[in-house]
Amino acid sequence: MRNQYHFVTHWRVEGTCGEVADILSEPLTLPRWWPAVYLAAEETRPADAQGLGQRVRLHTKGWLPYTLRWEFEVVESRYPHGYALVANGDFDGRGVWTIVQDGDFVNATYDWRLRAEKPLLRNLSFLLKPLFEANHRWAMAQGEESLKLELARRRASSDAARAAVPPPPGPVTYAAIGLLAAAAVAGVGVVYLARRSIRKTTKRDRGTHAKLRRSGDRGRAVRTARDRAARPRSSRRP
Question: Pairing between strand 105-116 and 67-77?
Answer without folding.
Answer: unpaired
